[in-house]
Amino acid sequence: MRVSGVPVVKWDKPEFLPTHTVSSVLILPHHDNINCLLKKMEISVAEAEKRTGKNAVNMQETYTVYLIETRPVDAASEGTNPALDSLWRRYSEFELLRNYLLVTYPFAVVPPLPEKRAEFVWHKLSADNMDPDFVERRRVGLENFLLRVASHPVLSSDKIFYLFLTEENGWKETVFETGFQAKADSRLKALNATFRVKNPDKRFAEMKHYGDELQSVISQLLRVRARAADRLYGVYKVHGNYGRVFSEWSAIEKEMGDGLQSAGHHMDAYAASVDDILEEEEHYADQLKEYLFYADALRTVCRKHELTQYELEMAVQDLTSKKQQQEELATGTIRTFSLKGMTSKLFGQETPEQREAKLKMLETQIEEGEEQVKERNAECDEFVKSAWVDIERFKEQKDHDLRESLISYAIMQISMCKKGIQVWNNAKECFNKM
Amino acid sequence: MSGSVVDNTVSSGNSSAAIPTDISGQILDLDEDDDLEVFSKDTTLTDGSSLNASMQTSSASMINQYKFEEEEEDADTKDIFVTVDNPESHVTAIETYITYRVETKTTRSEFDSSEFEVRRRYQDFLWLKGRLEEAHPTLIVHPLPEKFVMKGMVERFNEDFIETRRSALHKFLNKIAEHPIFSSSEDFKIFLTAGSGELTSHKKQGPGFLSRMGETVKAVAAAVRGVRSRPQEFTDMQEYVEAFSQKISSIDKVTQRIVREQKEYLEELKECGPTYALWSQSEEELAEPLKNVAGCVDKCCKETDEQVKHLNDHLIPVLHEYVLCADTLKAVLRRRDNIQADFEAKTEALATKKADRDADSKVLSLAWGSLVGRSPEEVKQQKQQKLKGEIKEMRDELDKTEDRLEWANNALKSDWTRWQKGMRTDLRSAFIDTAERNVSYYEKCLAVWESFLQSQRTDAEGNGNVDFS
Lengths: 434, 469
Prior knowledge:
Chain B: Residues 78-199 form the PX domain. Chain B: InterPro entries: AH/BAR_dom_sf, PX_dom, PX_dom_sf, PX_SNX7, Vps5_C. Chain B: One of its GO terms (biological process) is endocytic recycling. Chain B: Residues 377-411 form a coiled coil. Chain B: One of its GO terms (molecular function) is phosphatidylinositol binding. The structure holds two protein chains of two kinds. By secondary structure, chain A is mainly alpha-helical. Helix content of chain A is 65%, strand content 8%. Chain A has helices at 37-40, 73-77, 91-104, 132-150, 159-166, 171-177, 180-192, 202-250, 257-331, 339-347, 352-432; strands at 41-54, 60-72, 85-90. A three-stranded antiparallel β-sheet of chain A has the order 1-2-3. Chain A is elongated. The two termini of chain A are 56 Å apart. Chain B has ten helices and six strands. In chain B, 30% of the residues are buried. Chain B has a domain at 231-365 and 375-457: Up-down Bundle (Substrate Binding Domain Of Dnak, Chain:A, Domain 2). The chains are: A mainly alpha, B mainly alpha. At the A-B interface, helix 8, helix 9 and helix 11 of A face helix 7, helix 8 and helix 10 of B.
């Protein structure tokens, strides 16, 4: 599956950071989906820009907007180069889109957004949202999000998503018109509530547990990695001091001078090389982070299953108790304690008319109850079916993507080792001349 | 005045992450580490006027001894091999100390036998160094390891400390053995061959304490006086030594800092492998690659550990030796200056005395003379005789001092060239060694990760999804 490339984004980086091309896509979505939007349309988040404006409380604020470019695929393959459609979106609009998708497709493992604030940073990396590197990495993350949604078998055909990519003005209003907010509120409430499910689908329980573990272990890995990166930075940078001292020392030596001086240059190069190395590793960290957030999406789906299951169980419970009441009333035996029953025992039975009325009411209720159980059962089944399909799809995607990540990590390590070998071999030659 | 060397070059192990946030491409400043005081109570005399009895030969032959820059030392012509090993601790009622085995193998005729084995303690090495410096104040003696190191809880009998010291003592003796003058020293020979009783009694000989004190007073006076007209080449030497001392100390500090940072990096890296392993337990398809990565990270940890050890055991000791060398050089230059100051003082005194002789007789002495019943002529005669005697004495003394100065200067010049060559060789090979080790480290890590890639490749081909871009 082809994915569009992204032009180089040159930011006002501080002088000591090199500019370079950043690969546009973190991971290639590999799932071969014939009907998904990505097959018909090229999508990219090409640029980021700072804007200032007045916010809701009429205060000046600075924010970043991202340029989304789209182009139909067919035309490109015919050799003509149609103009790109483009519009600007800010992060909050992405968030709105995602919330809409979460509510509208509760069974789907919805792709996550890049983090709102920089976390797991090692000290040199800025945690500032306005930092150009952070913005750049976020641009890449947002593009990845769009590509994931556009290649999802279900989400990609959503109208709101399509409009997000194509209609700059009025999109927000359109989203709100769908009324998803109401559903969002109740969903939020439900997800946060604690309830006990008697018979959850085992697979979902396991998935939820897996989601917990995945979240915990990736967090740990990101933390440890950040600390190691910090230390590695220190090791490399201290070598820069060799460069300075060798240079000064070479000034007082006759025969050793040249060798020392040139060795010093290689030490400087060694010290400088760590910046690129760690920047690349940051991409690896971003790939891990995506799955950290995916773990949360996975848990959300499992939680939603619990909710539907719970509602089903509640309906069944309700129906059962109603049926029991009916039976008791009909046979006159009291199996369940009720105040009515007690009072009638104490103060005498009800009149036949009263009983008739009650029975009639119960019958209606039971009918309604059975309807509800049927509905909820269907809901539950439906949910389990579609959710499990998406979970399976997600599993495959995750296994593929993370394996690719590990491979790219190994490639990074190899590249770092190669650089090290080169520098120290060069230094050795210089020392030989001492 | 006994020379005490206070060396503030080594820093403590307390590293705060004092890395400014805006520094990324720039060099990290060496942060203000706590200074590590290293005390080496060196009992060497800094003046040059006390001579070992065996060196009282004529100046001509002395000059000849110092033409050793023409001799190239070949490994083939090496005729003496000295090893220091096998540390053992000895406990007595008063103290506990370590002795080292010193083994000598030689074909030199002045030795009674071809193999010797003795046990020596650190004090004995100190004694030998002192004797060599006494006998040759302007020759450069390779430094000894420090007497003790005050660094938190390092005790004298810590294994690493003992090994470091043993290695340094070994180098010390070998440097002495390689030195054309020192290696023929009687004291050196006795050090290598004498039984402990014999050594103790030999140590008691040599210029006594009082005569040493007398020389010390003279030395202080000379030092205070200072040198009037130091030859340019020695001034150049001094400037070089100042600068070299700074640079080598910096390099020592930088290297120690690198070792610290590497160790801390290793600590963090050690947690990565287990985290990947933990993760693999929750996964099915991913379990194998994750376990594989965990293994790779662990292997890299091992390599990093060994690389740090190598730095610590090979590069740092050599740098440290040359930090101490810089102080030795400063002391040598001081001693040479003192000899020259002594010479200058004596020259002045002689001139004054001569002026005295040529001046008219003082009225007072004539008056005194007449008081004790001597004629003015007699007094004048006596005075002149006395002055003539004194002047002759001073003249002789001055000649001796002049010889000593010339001898000291030539000795220093020759040994200086020799030392520079040795320094260049030692430091060059230490740096080359380090560079090679670093290359090897990266090569090993490279192999680890490439084998991971290889395993994933064959896996992928096995499963039918070949997806290597």
